[in-house]
């Protein structure tokens, strides 16, 4: 028996449906469905998608998590038929805020939907952050001062891109990495974001690249805020001036 087959038996039992009823809904024979529940065979991808939609449980949970350990009513239902595990609390009843470490931040791209990976992360609790899913992510670079390489941004999970608010900052988890930017606007293809450091130009993130969106709630910094600009104003001004000169030169060449 596999986790997948155990989950199928459990879900059908919760609904008190017969194998024949579920098989009819999936447009397959009862015998074929029974083999999936018994773990004798594995369904092809098209049937796996149908099973996921039928039980309203995401494929990643169906095949990798023993959902018998989590009350279905406590799971958080998200758009696009995605379901995530319940918010965890510590012994004091406060939400557990998982901390993604700096050195392993890229590992989050592979483990963000893996319950075992999330369970392995260290966590903290902040009493003023409740009623939501929160996670702390590392940020770096100089595009969003005063935050620096010693900063963690604590974000609240955003269920839909329609919840984005113009002018607020968000941490976009994409297939390429983590991007902390200020939201500008969006269209059907992607979202336009910008940096608070004017040296960097605004750009678009395609929706097809976005895995998760977390809205800024607070930050944790092991360094004194404001040190980003210490001793650097002349250097920054030089680069801004150079950028302006390059743009002027391009304009002159285009006019010739």
TrEMBL record:
InterPro entries per UniProt: Cro/C1-type_HTH, Lambda_DNA-bd_dom_sf, LexA-like, LexA/Signal_pep-like_sf
Limits of the HTH cro/C1-type domain: 8-62
Lineage top rank: taxon: Bacteria
Gene Ontology MF terms in the entry: DNA binding
Keywords: DNA-binding
Gene3D superfamilies reported for this sequence: lambda repressor-like DNA-binding domains, Umud Fragment, subunit A
Cross-referenced CDD domains: HTH_XRE, S24_LexA-like
Listed Pfam families: HTH_3
Protein name: HTH cro/C1-type domain-containing protein
